[in-house]
Structure formats: structure tokens, C-alpha cells
Amino acid sequence: MAGAASDRVGTALSCAAADDRLSGVLFLGMPPRTLVEVARRFADGFGPLVVLGAATTDDGLWIAVDAGRDGLRIVPGRLAADRPAVAAVPDLARLSLAGRRAAVSALGADVAHVERHGLSVAWRPRTRWLAACARADAARLPPHLLDRFPLRIDAAGLADGARGVPIHRPPAGLPVPALPEDAAARAVELAGPDAGTRTDLALARTARAIAALRGAGAATPADVDEAARLLGLLAGPGPRAASGASGPADPIASAGTADATGDAPPRLVTEPVNAVIPMTAEALDPAVTEPAPLAGASPGPSCGTARARPDDEPGDAERLPLRAPLAPGRGRRDARGPSIGTVRATDLHDLAIVPTLLAAAPFQAVRCPGHHEARPPHPLHLAAADLRAHRRAARPPLMAVLLLDHTAGADWPDALAPYLHWMYTARATVGLIEVGTGDDELRARLLTTRNLLDPRVADALDRPPGRATPLAHGLLLAERLLRRELPAADAVLLVATDGRGNVPLSASRTGRLVPPVSTQGVDDALAVAARIRRLAGVRSVVLDPGPRPQRFLTARLAEALGAELRSAGDPQDTGPAGEPEW
Question: Which end of the chain is more exposed for a tag (fewer CB within 10 A), N or C?
């Protein structure tokens, strides 16, 4: 699986280098750190590398400040130039609003414009965008953002690094391969009658890039088939692959599925193969949403029945992803949200230094006639009218992390009803961690949703229990999620469990349970809980399911977390409206 993923990733990068119209490549299941390594290798000798994330702003992308002999002046930024560059997005689902607007505006466009702070620039975008995204998050990305990534590759088997990824670049100066009528007709046939124009274009352009990499002057129907295998729209014949025949060593010929060899003609499929990116939530496995892979755990093959192209409309994607959220109410400005511009400052709170200097620079000769000729140079002369403050977007919502123990034997839907109602009315982003399911009894599973309306939350509440309780692993996933979200949002951790964790953390990491276990699982859970207690800004609550043997375990867990201990269904824990009194 790792070798096939390496070939697919290498072929996609080689096609992106060969054709600047294949400027967007999305890798499904690739860890963020691996994406940065891949982008750094791809950018070597190609152009500067720009890493985009949750803190990316418009000013950081489109403009820059140049300090010359004539003072400060605004120049085109990192992406606003007619030169090759590489934009790396380690997690496309967490890309900022400014970064998403930049991708929608520049990717696949013939010309881009910037009118900002007096700078007027028009150029032909030549930046290659390399992005990674978790499989479960792909179904919830806006469809017009996914449209900008014609190459979407399954890279789940590339978790060990990017050193073995083969990247080939065609020699400079070669003409673009032609697309004969038979190859164009094959692309239309493989795309299907219901596909949009972007599917046809993606197939045709990828086929021409594959032809360019092998030095051909024109693309053939075989190149179109190879491109379809890379995009997951075509599966190879099965008989020769089943007999153990080995595929070609060329990464372009081996970029498709494992059964892509043989003499029989390829068959068109409507279900995904290895390179397919699921586009609907029903085809996703919530178990793959863990923020970081455990040591020794190997990702499984892709599964589902969803199509891979952006023409399919996701059922629960964001409806207004490029619109900024509502501004916060009156009161002191919040300095924790991302900066989306500047305003005149009325106090010294949250000053924007560079915009302040830019506002003062044009008036230096007026305020000091000999300012530019003075030796040594004068510092800038500032006035109160020059002060600028950041205009920040609304702070991210509250993060509510619910750890649900299915083996506790409680009626959790009824017991959690007031807490779920509070999460909904507070518009909290929900992180749901399930412990003790029958799917993978040695590991917990993590699901991150924008709110409680996600249908997978209701499915999780009704899931039958398993036979083991990896409580320590569930708390470890909660710790990782809280550390990732705390810089931007407050957090509440609700642990619904009986405290009887019988799976050590080592068994969750390796996938093997080595007896005897004794109290190691409980000790590991208490150790992780003690680390969570040291996180500032987290309020924890432990929900006890009720009378049972070894009830003291929940008290020990609450003490280690520094949490309040409450009983499920206790009417004293809810207010007049039925919501929990925090």
C-alpha cells in the first residue's frame, strides 16, 4: 500500500509540474507534516514555498512591505506575482477564510487581480497548490473549493514520509502534447454523461501531462485511461493482477490501482478504487478522523460508494463558506480572532504595527522637512492619527469535547440530553470521542463536527457497546484535540464513563493486548487525565452512570482531571430550563 501511494503521489506531482493548469492537487489522508515534506521537495528548484494555515490573512498573501531608501512601500506579496511558487496547505479543512478565498480566486484562473492598500496588480497565476485533508473532512468542504483541485489522490499509505516519492519534471521548452479526437472522445466517455466539464478537463489535461512526461508529442487513449486510473474513475482488469503479475516499474504506469496490468481492456467503474476521495458523509469511516496516527497502526484501504468528482453536491457541506461570520457584539474588542483588516485606533489595544507605520510614512517630510536627508536617519515621526488597530473576525466558537463510554451500561441519550441541548444552543463545535465500541475494541474513535446536527452524532449515541474499554486512549485523543483547539477557543470536556478502563495505552498504540493487564489501563487513564488538568482554559465534568461496583473509579478520575463529578439524571445538576448549570 505504501509503495502504491508513493507512486500515485509522485505521478500527481509530476503531472502538476508538467502542466500549470493542473495547479491544484489534494492528497486525501496524508498527514500535515508529510504534506509539508512533499511540498518542500516539489518546491526545490521550482519556486518559493508558502505554507498556508488557519492564521493566513489577506495582507500576508497579496501584499508585502519593502523598506528601501525612499522609505516604506507596498509591493506584491508572495502569491501576487507572475512567477512559479508552491502553496502548501497542510490541512485544507482548517484553512482560514482568506486562504480559501485565495484558492478559489487564483486556482485555475487565467488572470488574477489585486486592489489593496493602493496596490493594483494583475498577473497570470502560476502557483501550484498542494493540500492535504482527512478523509472524513473532504465531504464537508465547500464544493467550489474542491472544484479548484482537479487532482485528488488517495495518499493514506504515505504516512511514513515523503523521501520515496518519485517526482519527474519534463525538460523545459518542449511543446505541449496534442489531444487527438480519439483521446478526447475517450475522456468524455470515461467522465460519463452526468459529469460536469471539469471532469472532462481534468482527465484530458492529466492525460496530456502523462504524455509529456514520457516525451510523446500527443496523448493517446491509453494515456486517458492512465489518467482515469489516477483519478479513481477507472479500474484495471482483474485476471492478470490476480495471478500475481507484476506491474511496470515506471511510476506513471504504476500510479493506478494494483490490478492495472493485463491485456484485457480496462473497465469503467462507478464505485471508487484506491485513488477515490469520498464526497458524501455516508461513505466515510469516522474511525479515520483521529488527529494523529498511532505508532504501529497502518491505514486501511479506501472504502465507500461515493463518486470522486466535485460535480456531486455534498449533502452537508458549508453553504456560505466564503462569508465572514457575524461580528461580535459591543464591548471590548477581541484580540484572539484572525485579523481581517485594520481600523483607526481609539486606544492602544491590539495595535497593528505595520499598517501604523505605513499610515505615517507619507507625512514624514511634512512633519520633519529634513527627515530623508538626515544622517543618521531619523526614526519615523508618529501622530495619534496614524495609529491603526486590527479588525478581527469573530472568535471561533466554543469547543465541547464529549467522551462517551459505551460499556458503562447507562442510558446515555437521556442522561446527556440537557448537556447536548446546551451544546446546541451555545453553537459549540463538538468533538465526540467514542470508547468501547465493537468496531475496534482496543482504540477509541474521534469525530469532530461543526455542531450537533451532524447525523453521525445520533448514530454514535445509539451504538451498541463492545467488550473492552480503552479509556486511556480516549482521554489521549481528547488531550490532542484540546491542545489543538485551545489557542483559538474555550473548551469544555464532558467525560461520561464509569471509570473502568481495562485497555492499557500501549495496547491501543500497538493493536495487541498482552496480559496480564491488572490496573494498568486505569493508571494510564489517570496519567493522561493529570496532563489534561494542566491545560489552561478547559473546564471538565465527569458524568457518573449510577450505583455499581467500583464506583470510586469515577471519583479518582474526576480528581485527576480536576473536574466536577455529577450523577447521570440528577435533577439538581440542571437549571430551570433543563440545561446543566455550569
Answer: C
**Using 50, 70 and 90 to split pLDDT, how confident is the model at 558?**
very high
The residue length of the chain stands at: 582
pLDDT band at 473 (very low <50, low <70, confident <90, very high): very high
State yes or no: pLDDT of 133 exceeds 60: yes
- What count of other Cβ atoms lies within 10 Å of the Cβ of residue 175? 7
Average the pLDDT over each of 121-125, 273-277, 492-496, 517-521 and give the range with the smallest value: 273-277
Collect all residues with Cβ–Cβ distance below 8 Å to 139 and sequence separation of at least 6. Answer: 278, 279, 280, 281, 283, 284, 306, 314, 316, 317
Residues 452 and 348 in one domain: no
- State residue 108 phi and psi, 5-degree precision: 75, 5
**Looking at per-residue confidence, does 558 or 281 come out higher?**
558
* C-alpha to C-alpha distance for 582 and 419, rounded to whole angstroms: 10
Give the H or E element holding residue 492: strand 491-496
Percent residues over pLDDT 90 in the chain = 10
DSSP letter at 286? G
- Domain assignment present for 283: no
345 and 448, same domain (yes or no): no
pTM (predicted TM-score):
0.54
Strands 267-268 and 339-344: unpaired
Question: Which of the pair, 480 or 312, is modelled with greater confidence?
Answer: 480
Are 549 and 403 in the same domain?
yes
Q: What is the pLDDT of residue 258?
A: 36
Helix (H, G, I), strand (E, B) or coil at 466: coil
88 occurs within a structural domain:
no
Buried/exposed 216-254: b ≥16 CB within 10 Å, e otherwise:
eeebbbebbbbbbbbbbbbbbbeebbeeeeebeeebbbb
Q: How many domains does the chain have?
A: 2
Backbone angles phi, psi at 178, to 5 degrees: -80, 165
Tell me, what amino acid is at 429? Answer: T
CA distance 504 to 495: 18
